[in-house]
Amino acid sequence: MNRLGVYLAGAVLVALVLAALAPHLFTGQDPLAVDSGGTLRPPSAEHLLGTDENGRDVLARIVYGTRTSLLLGFGAIAVALVFGGLLGLAAGLGNRVVENVIMRLSDVGLAFPELLLALVVITVAGGGTANAMLAIGVANIPSYARLVRAQTLAVRRSSYVEAAYALGLTAPRVILRHVLPNAVKPVLVLATIGVGTALVAGSALSFLGLGTPPPEPEWGSMLSTARNFISRAWWYGLFPGAAITLTVISVTVVGRALRLRSEGRTS
Amino acid sequence: MSVVKVDDLRVAFGAAQVVRGVSFEIEAGECLALVGESGSGKSVTARTLVGLTGEGARVSAAALSFAGQDLTALRERGWRRLRGSRIGFVLQDALVSLDPLRKVGKEIEEVLAAHTALSGAARRARVHELLASVGVPEPELRAGQLPHELSGGLRQRALIAAAIAGDPHLVIADEPTTALDVTVQAQILDLLAGLKAQGRSLLVISHDLAVVARLADRVAVMKDGRIVEHGPTAQVLGTPAHDYTRRLLRAIPAEHTKGTRLSDAAPAAPRRDPGEVVVRAEGLGKSFGGRAAVREVSFELRAAETLGIVGESGSGKTTTARIALGLTRPDTGTVDVRGKAWTGRDPALRRDVQVVYQDPLASFDPRYTVAKVLAEALSVAGVPRGERRARSVELLELVGLGAEHLDRRPLRLSGGQRQRVAIARALAPRPSVIVCDEPVSALDVSVQAQVLDLLEDVQRETGVAYLFISHDLGVVHHVCDRVLVMKDGRVVEEGPVETVFRTPAHPYTKELVAAIPRLAAA
Amino acid sequence: MRTLAFIGWRLLAGVGVLWGAATLTFLVVHFTPGDPAEAIVGGEGAAPTPEVLAQVRAEYGLDRPWYAQYATHLWRILHGDFGTSYRLHSPVTQAIGEQAAATVELALAAAVTGLLLAVVLALATAKRRRWLRGLAAGAELVAASTPTFWLGIVLLTVFSFGLRLFPATGGQGPASLVLPALCLALPIAGVLGHVLREALEEVLDEPFVVSARARGLSDTAVRLRHALRHALTPLVTMTGFWVGALFGGAVVTETLFTRQGIGRLLVTAVNAKDLPVVLGVVLLSALVYVLVNLVVDLLYLAIDPRLKEAA
């Protein structure tokens, strides 16, 4: 991967975070302003990316939707990381019984596809942005638990941990100073890439009408409406999806670059 | 007519010049050895002869020919006709040079399929003949096995069988004996000598002058992409003309280097007399899953003394070292450190037993700088926070480094520097014994010489004792006072290193000592 | 013998996972807020009499203690009875069975297309010229990052409404399978292609590959006979990804292309809070996962015979 690509992806991410925090910097339009006279208008100087079926500015809705979409991705991975991480650490550091219980449970969890598990959570708890985020997060817990456990075990068996014991460091110190940071770091890096997939899963829920409800702007739910107007308004179906893809690409590129760096290979 | 003619060969990868004007010829039935340390360009030179220099390489030469054929203009198809059929290539370490998922016989058959019109059945018969000819017993059985089911020696033989399957004029062997036990090493060298006797030309690449001494007719010494000295083996090894060759020869630890310095010509200071007993092991035994790794091992180690443990892979030497370190609990037997029972738990004794590993890089936390590595070791020794940096500099100076290395990460240090940092860390708690587990096996011979000299200097200065694990008998002979010879988990012979190596009593020790590669002229 | 014992262990592990999955579905039903009897009778607006509710409770065993219900739950699942749909008032297995063929058709078409694309692309571009590798890497990245539902919209815009090459909705002969299958396959091909190419590039640097080249083998022979087999292992271990991508993708694709199938059944069930159907589909996905995993373990042994000893 070349350096320029990584910088570009980084710049996109910075812009996305800015758009999530201060959307008004990127557009002067109101994402909720209905204009019954100007529905489904193609891109123009006034509406750079056209308007939707209620005459709302598509660009404004994409920009204002950034916050929700990023929240879905990052929030879900945060949930998975915290709970999966704790379980994985417990499995990697604990005794055989603890390890076995956690791992067998995660085996069961892994048997369910992410989206399907999320659908179960939503059937029980109902839709909405927060529930969609939690649902995707919960669905990812088993794989993160596995990952963290594998890392913890690898670090525990590493030569530098043995060297620390040979120096005479106590077990809690070795775990705190060497095992934890070295086990968690690569998982954090992988989680960056995970944000992309979680974002896609979250917007898929919205697309199915089970995530963020209208009229709140969110990329997936915009596409959910847009698919009814494919034959008449290509811009409506194109741009929100392009936003998702661009975000996922950027997150992936930055994540992979971080991974290469953390493995000591330069990008 | 010479079989191979190389004139002014240059190879570059990007901006890096790896080979800078190498010229040599190989006659029919002759063996030339290219010798050098890592990065000298010897392997790249060899690979260029079969057109496998590597991705992104720029090759140029005034002449590059094989049996009269100009290789400089050769296209991929032409190279393919040459490879395997007229030039055989043996890579080092057969465990990774044979496809781990394919049967050994298939790998050899591949050559026949590519270069001959033999039928399937005829090919298989030929594979068995070839395996038999390189000394593989039960060739029919072995041909149907996967590489990991074969011992290191058999794998290397199979690889040689694949290289000669096309009946080539020239066989190139890149580090053919590296990673093999010393007795197996000798057998493989004999096998290669047999190929030469059949009239084939041989190009042997090695970092080990002693290994090529018994095989090569001529030796070319490479350094930084150039041949610095080139001549008949006896002449190069006996009366080296170039300063680098002399340094390289002096750096090889062996019987005659004992009591001298390897890395420079300075006279060695006298050794200390051994002091009181610091480690006493009695009746150590350890099994893993029902297999006894160590049986009834006992030894004593005194202050300022170096006790070597030699043995081939699987002999139990590493398990013994781990028991001494307190990292593995023995099933039977006891270890006393400075007269007190030692289980690895007692924090007061923990400081006394330190370790230096074969791979220093893996033994440092990848996030740590040298300063942090040493500070942690000093904290265990109870050095107050404010004094750690100053003490770290002292330690670094003791191992020939300096304050400028403090803020570096081990990844950015050279192999020799890393091992120096590892030694400094081991010294930080002022131990009475350091277990050295193959501490120089991964190093080039000149760096190895520096580290071995350093270990002796440190011992003289601090009186620390070493438990020195190595498969390299030359190294052991050079640094150790006494030696334990291990085989199948038992100590088969022990005593002063001079006695054991000069007048070995046990048949196994005799075999080991006979297999040591020696510099014929030295 | 070893192989048999290995299969035995894997089977046992699979049964364990399924038992866990069944237990999980029980827990979900048991701890879902609201009265299941009311859901069975017909949702919030039905306002059934207490007598009716009591009768339903008795009929469905909802008045019995939890362990008895749990035992019945497991017993039924063991006999292929996944319960009755609240919405359709027919057995869940029947509802799923009616939809299965369409989804299997879609999933198989997509899996084969995705795998083929990935293998061909990776074999053709690994360790080739810089620009070619860059191009392949870029294509994989875009494909893997594109959400199925958007890809579908783009495909529909271009090929159905723009060029009018393929129908926009499903169930109209083979032509109507092309776009949904492609839509499901491309993201899979992106992910698999990336994994495969990285693995290939690593393998092609191995000494045994240099050895094979030094024997005079052609580049194609080296790739096919030596490298591919090694590079396949990481693909094979991605069972979770495969099953997840196909099931999750089917849900989205079927909705988008208004195709019949398990995915649409599921979405409708989620919207109607038809828990038995949702859990039935989830159980089915776990079953598929376990079965595929078993096949994969065997494939794994076939690819890497060294594992027979480890097993």
From TrEMBL, chain A:
Keywords: Cell membrane, Membrane, Transmembrane, Transmembrane helix, Transport. PANTHER family: OLIGOPEPTIDE TRANSPORT SYSTEM PERMEASE PROTEIN APPC, PEPTIDE ABC TRANSPORTER PERMEASE PROTEIN. It comes from the Bacteria. Belongs to the binding-protein-dependent transport system permease family. It is found in: Cell membrane. It comes from Nonomuraea antimicrobica. The lineage of its organism: Bacteria, Bacillati, Actinomycetota, Actinomycetes, Streptosporangiales. The chain crosses the membrane at residues 70-94, 115-139, 188-213, 233-258. It is a multi-pass membrane protein. Its main location: membrane. This is ABC transporter permease. PROSITE patterns: ABC_TM1. Residues 66-255 form the ABC transmembrane type-1 domain.
From TrEMBL, chain B:
It comes from Nonomuraea antimicrobica. This is ABC transporter ATP-binding protein. Coiled coil: none annotated. Keywords: ATP-binding, Nucleotide-binding, Transport. Belongs to the ABC transporter superfamily. Residues 4-249, 279-513 form the ABC transporter domain. Pfam families: ABC_tran, oligo_HPY. GO terms for molecular function: ATP binding. SUPFAM superfamilies: P-loop containing nucleoside triphosphate hydrolases.
UniProtKB/TrEMBL annotation, chain C:
It is found in: Cell membrane. It is a multi-pass membrane protein. CDD domains: TM_PBP2. Residues 100-300 form the ABC transmembrane type-1 domain. InterPro entries: BPD_transp_1_N (IPR045621), MetI-like (IPR000515), MetI-like_sf (IPR035906). The chain crosses the membrane at residues 7-29, 106-126, 138-163, 175-196, 232-257, 277-303. Belongs to the binding-protein-dependent transport system permease family. This is ABC transporter permease.
